[in-house]
């Protein structure tokens, strides 16, 4: 536990500093009390000096006792470097996710990392097509409501499955380069089967995205003119009418411009 180990040493350092400070303070107060105490007896101010010195000595003693007790306790074991790095990454991801743009940044980082992991394999092109189609569908997801909602859920499940399939295609392809000659034939057949499944799945996903775009287009298209266009036409007619009325009023106020009969 890296956190527990670091916490242990931080507490040890704090106790050591505190014990030293109280020791210095106790020595100073004790010396002052010894010098300032009159030989004829203790007065009220002298009692205060003596009491402060005694309290400082007691605190210093307690701190040294706590320090020795903690130092006698074995420190927690150190974490494996890989586990420590994983915990650091998890803390960093959690910190980024709390930012307003954090989820989008993390999603883009994961996309780029997945693309780089498939670079140089036959799955790279299919993955790029799938990623483009998924981004297109994500842009329309807010409008795919009602009867289209089950299709959106099915597309999300298919997206995860196809990305996993692309990873398997890349893994088999890399293993194919290392396989001995007697195992390459069967492994190549398996690779071709996986590639065909991936291509068919991506093509089906693209057809779903095209169908979703058609649904959005038909759902947004009214049977007559768009309401925004009709409202703009009404506003245009109103402005023309106001302009004509102002022109007539100005002509009435100016006899020279009034129309002759």
UniProtKB/TrEMBL annotation:
The lineage of its organism: Bacteria, Bacillati, Actinomycetota, Actinomycetes, Micromonosporales. The chain crosses the membrane at residues 21-41, 47-65. The keyword Membrane applies. NCBIfam families: PspM_Rv2743c. Pfam families: Rv2743c (PF25587). Keywords: Membrane, Transmembrane, Transmembrane helix. This is Uncharacterized protein.
């Amino acid at each position: 536990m890296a956190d527990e180990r670091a916490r242990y040493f931080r507490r040890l350092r704090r106790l050591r500093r505190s014990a030293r400070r109280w020791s210095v303070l106790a020595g100073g107060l004790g010396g002052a009390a010894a010098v300032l105490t009159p030989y004829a007896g203790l007065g009220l101010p002298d009692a205060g000096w003596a009491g402060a010195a005694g309290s400082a000595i007691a605190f210093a003693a307690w701190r040294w006792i706590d320090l020795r007790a903690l130092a006698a306790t074995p420190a927690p074991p150190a974490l494996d470097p890989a586990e420590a790095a994983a915990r650091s990454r998890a803390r960093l991801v959690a910190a980024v996710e709390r930012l307003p743009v954090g989820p989008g940044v993390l999603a883009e980082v994961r996309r780029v990392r997945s693309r780089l992991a498939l670079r140089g394999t036959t799955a790279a092109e299919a993955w790029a097509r799938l990623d483009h189609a998924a981004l297109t569908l994500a842009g329309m997801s807010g409008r795919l409501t009602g009867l289209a909602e089950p299709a959106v859920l099915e597309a999300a499940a298919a997206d995860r499955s196809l990305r996993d399939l692309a990873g398997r295609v890349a893994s088999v392809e890399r293993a194919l380069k290392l396989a001995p000659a007697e195992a390459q034939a069967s492994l190549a057949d398996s690779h071709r089967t996986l590639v065909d499944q991936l291509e068919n799945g991506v093509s089906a996903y693209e057809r779903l995205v095209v169908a979703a775009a058609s649904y959005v287009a038909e759902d947004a298209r009214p049977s007559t003119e768009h309401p925004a266009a009709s409202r703009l036409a009404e506003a245009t007619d109103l402005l023309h009418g106001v302009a004509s009325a102002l022109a007539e009023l100005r002509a009435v106020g100016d006899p020279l411009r009034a129309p002759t009969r």
